[in-house]
Amino acid sequence: DIVMTQSPDSLAVSLGERATINCKSSQTILYSSNSKNHLAWYQHKPGQPPKLLIYWASTRESGVPDRFSGSGSGTDFTLTISSLQAEDVAVYYCQQYYTTPPWTFGQGTKVEIK
Amino acid sequence: EVQLLESGGGLVQPGGSLRLSCAASGFPFISYAMTWVRQAPGKGLEWVSSVSGGVGTTYYADSVKGRFTISRDNSKSTLYLQMSSLRAEDSALYYCARQLSVGTTTRALLGYWGQGNLVTVSS
Lengths: 114, 123
Fold this sequence. Notes:
The structure holds two protein chains of two kinds. Chain A is mainly beta. Chain A has no helices and twelve strands. In chain A, strand 9 and strand 10 form a beta hairpin. Chain A is globular, with a radius of gyration of 13 Å. Chain A starts with a strand and ends with a strand. The model of chain A has no long low-confidence stretch (mean pLDDT 97). Helix content of chain B is 0%, strand content 50%. In chain B, the strands form two sheets. In chain B, strands 2, 4, 5, 6, 9, 10 and 11 form a seven-stranded mixed beta sheet that branches. Chain B has a four-stranded antiparallel beta sheet with strand order 1-3-8-7, with no helix packed on it. In chain B, strand 5 (45-51) and strand 6 (58-60) form a beta hairpin.
């Protein structure tokens, strides 16, 4: 099974500052057949369902603000919030959707305002 | 507009059974893979089970294999999760989710989510 490990578990960032979350997979999730990284990022706020932010490691979902960006390839990935807003307080999860199950999530990173 | 409405949760005793439903609308249900994801209290997200669009191939996490059964009724645009031999550790908010777009490489890329349905396993 592919294990997804996020770091840090939590972080506090001042409004307008950059927040960076890392995600590491235990094996590559770069699929040779399509040359794509099968990595997604979700935002989860209390009382709401998770929301897809980023897929293929760096493609922003429709309607997601451009302050959210994803990068990385192979086994190491990053979600960056370039200028943290109050509404970005949430738990963020990476997830691999590589070829075969189980399709695993990271343990989550809680983002708060400093 | 894509809508996913879960139902069927509640309180059940250990060893008991429960069936969750997810009524879908706003898209051609038969074409899309569907997934159940759960979140136990104070814990993170856990992939539980998926069923592909079309022929309906099923996939399960080891933690539920042999106890849970995912199915779909395309005529009713409804997804199900039959849960049996329930344990305390199955207590969670269960989400129904749809793949973002049709395709075999994105079965578990979850673009649309229901609001969640609470299952509590306790005596």
